[in-house]
Specification:
Radius of gyration of chain B: 31 Å
Strand content of chain C: 5-15%
Number of strands of chain C: 11
Radius of gyration of chain C: 21 Å
Shape of chain C: globular
Number of helices of chain B: 15
Distance between the termini of chain C: 27 Å
Number of strands of chain B: 17
Order of helices and strands of chain C: HEHEHEHEHEEHEHEHHHHEHHEEHH
Helix content of chain C: 25-40%
Chains: A alpha+beta (105), B alpha+beta (485), C alpha/beta (475)
Low-confidence stretches of chain C: none
Oligomer: heterotrimer
Strand order of the largest sheet of chain B: 3-7-8-11-1-12-13-14-15
Strand order of the largest sheet of chain C: 1-3-2-4-6-5-10-11-9-7-8
Amino acid sequence: MKRKPVINMNKEIIAYNNIDHITKLAKIRLGKEEKELFSRQINDILSFLRKIGEPDIENIQPTFNINTPSQHFHEDIATPSLPQDVALGMTEYHKNGYFEVPGIL
Amino acid sequence: MEKDTVIGLEIHIQLSTKTKLFCNCNTDYVDKEANSHTCPVCLGLPGTLPVLNRKAVEFALKTAIALNCHINEINTFHRKNYFYPDLPKAYQISQHDLPIAKNGFLEITGEESNETRRIRINRAHMEEDAGKLVHLEGDGNTLCSLVDYNRSGIPLLEIVTEPDLQTSEEAIVFLKGLRSIVQYLGVCDGNLEKGSMRCDANISIRESDSGRLGTKTELKNMNSFRAIRMAIDYEILRQRRLIEQGEKVLQETRRWDEAKGKTIFMRSKEDAEDYRYFPEPDLLPLHIENEWVKDIKNNFPELPEQRKKRFITDYQLSEYDSDRLVEVKSLGDYFERASENYKNYKQLANWILGELLYYLGQENKDIDDSSVSPASLVDLLQLIDRGIISGKMAKSVFEQMFKSGKSASTIVKQSEFTQISDEDEISGIIDTVIQGNNETVQDYLSGKEKVIHFLVGQVMKHTKGRAKPDLVLTLLKERIDKIET
Amino acid sequence: MVKNREISVEQVMKDLFNHIDNVDSTLKAYLYVNKEDALIRAKEMDQKIKNNDIPFLAGLPVAINDNICTEGIETTAGSKMLKGFIPPYDATVVKRIKEEGGIIIGKTNLDEFAIGTSTESSAFQKTINPWDKNRVPGGSSGGSAVAVAADEAIVALGTDTGGSIRIPASFCGISGIKPTYGRISRYGVIAGTSSLDQVGILGKSIKDLAIMMNVVCGYDNLDSTSAETSIPDFLSFCQGDIKSLRIGIPQEIFSNDLDLEVKEKITDSINKILQLGGIIEETSLPNMEYALPVYYTIAAAETSSNLAKFDGIRYGLRAKDVRDLEEMYLNSRSEGFGSEVIRRILLGAFILSSEGYNDYYLKAQKVKTLIKKDFEKAFQKYDLLITPTSLTPAFKIGEKTDNSLDLILTEKFTSPVNLLGLPALSINCGFSTEGKLPIGLQIIGRSFEENRVLKLAYNLEESFKEINSIKPDLS
């Protein structure tokens, strides 16, 4: 079978100094030690995932959806919404009918 | 060095479906209590899933067809991932590389130049609206922010133009044209103030010599045509000055500050988020079947341009009047409803474009909120035609109609507006006038015919202007002629 | 027995809750036992039965994996993030069970947000394998598997993203089915990997699975990926022989990392199938070796997006004493999520970022196409494929917690099935000699062909009577 590595196997994928970018995107706070641990572990996993670079996929289309049955729609008929107290009732942080968050400048 | 301005617009229109884009919550959220129009889906509760609104797709297709777009037979939804309190799932379901429509155009005619230009549409894509934030201030700080998800999930169609516009004037003409179209299609009410139509503008300066496009800035927060015009003009000036001073225009997003009358830095390109777009796994690719498009085309509503032509031929109105009547669909509708029972179309158009628009403007009202209905206006015009009131009086009556909401007939009956056309009543007054103006009567009899108008004036004075002038003249002449014999 | 009125539903429930009281303090299958509510419903059911209005499930006690929303009952997905979250809606599957007269007896433990293969990452408790108290039950639906294996429930719903029903079924010596993607509504199932997640059933007998399939399968207009394919009577496939069935066994499964005893039991099963008249041949799925990294890439990507909604604003944990919005996000999410989930979220955020999208996400979706072609080719020749459910029997608690990669390997044979949305079932096919640990055989069918999967499983079950008579020691 024809095989050619597509990803550069030596490339440092997610460097320690890079993890800040990702924690920012994902809104996760990590301590210094955690940061070291996680970036090492994630790098290990990425090395494993790089196996997907082996097969030849040059003319292969991605398969995003497996079973593609017919389209589903909802008809344009309104149904009752949740009562306000139920909508707000899943958090203690609400005020005057609104959800409350720290002030945004 | 000659420089052109290059303007591209990104317009969001709220599609006026009855339910939200991915759930069956009622879209009738404006001025309703916060968080009263939400469900597990549009609140982003765990385990909930989106189901696409067929009507929203139909509305998007209608708009795309009217804008001469290519419809993508297969189009897909993507997730745009970012955190913000108004975005309940922390991703917006939007369309990315395969939008519902692309490559369209809208022709605009400059208000002054009268030259027609084609403004290209790059794409139109469906997406969901976010909730609304309210900020509670205190001691000069934001104490907390409050979130209302009623708007979360309202269907939007984002229409992106190519940078084909050159002036703020053109941008406004384009937007008015677009607004007119979506109103005619019945897919959006096109209200900038209420936010059912929102517009961002990308602006840059092109150097004519090199043809090189300068760095663009994106303008946001413009909530009226006036604001759009002022913001674009301000930004053009700001960029020109920077260039003249040898400084660089930076790629950034700026917001229009209405109070300060200027654009203000919001964020730079470097701060741009990595939205991590990927195909929405909870929705399958949307297949637009040809039959569907055909069906929509077969039942396509009249567009403003067609209606204008019809107004010119069917009602013999001028191009100018027709233009003004059709721009806002409801105004054209008003005219047509009134025209069913009133055939002096020119007169009707004059009253609508004159008095009616004047008073609506005074009170900042939409035609739909007019207290004078088409039937009511026709009633008034018929009173004029029947000679019950004069044209001049009718203007006062109209003012009262507009303010009180009463019908013309009621106002005329209740007041002194009715013309006196009772011959006996007028004859009595004529007798009085003749008795009190003997000399003038003699002057008339001796050949000074012009003085008859003085006598008419006297009769009118006695009747507070309510007598019908031509009737007074006839009766007066008859009466004096009798004296002669 | 209930339908024949030999015993009341209430009595069944009482006995069941007594048994749960006795064993669950050790096994820790349940996060919540719905005793009060279940007993009320049991009484109502007895009344109905008396009136001869007997619904299909007639008071059947069902356990629900705790990542499936239950109206009015706390639903945590095994995460601190959702401690105290009481959904105002039922998942479609729960609704259907209730409508057919099933009774929800409790919410079962799982790996946090169903991410894991051992149920060890639950924020609340470690569930014990009833066959060996030092071993994991498998995961992520470990609580559901243990509840069934230890007779704490007749059947249980679980979810399966890469093996989360079949692995614990195999580790706990019971049966578990993950139907075709789209067969069962995902509405109300807390999403991990939307394109792979599927609800499934754990039970002791194939007939129990089929009965539940009849209830929970079917189109749902609240789930756009739900299939409109017609629903057969699944129970009708639990009969007949397998004489015309063509079964393929991929040669790739016999690799070095396959436990020898697992290999032995699979060989036994092959012989059994041949005895039963099935046609069995070796086949090849050359790209299957990429399934695991493809699966993991897609799972991490979608998980990172699906778990972003846990921001502390509308429900779920919100960190106290935060200075600003950013801190609210950071602290709430860092306090609410466990480390395995955080690892997955960070990995997924990278995979979807501008740096990772083309090299990982898009590539994975393309390699998926290759794997799909392999399976399509195999399914042209065979009605079913069989593999071991996992490389090894249940491993020891704590053995793999520090090694994500080792844990990933547990899903080697199960995850390709999810990638392609196929139906698959795990059935106990014997025990290891050392330690007497159950070993699972996986049966994979074509899309929407659960009928053949059930038929082979039922035939094997009938011939495995001896194996099935062995019970775990719950004392």
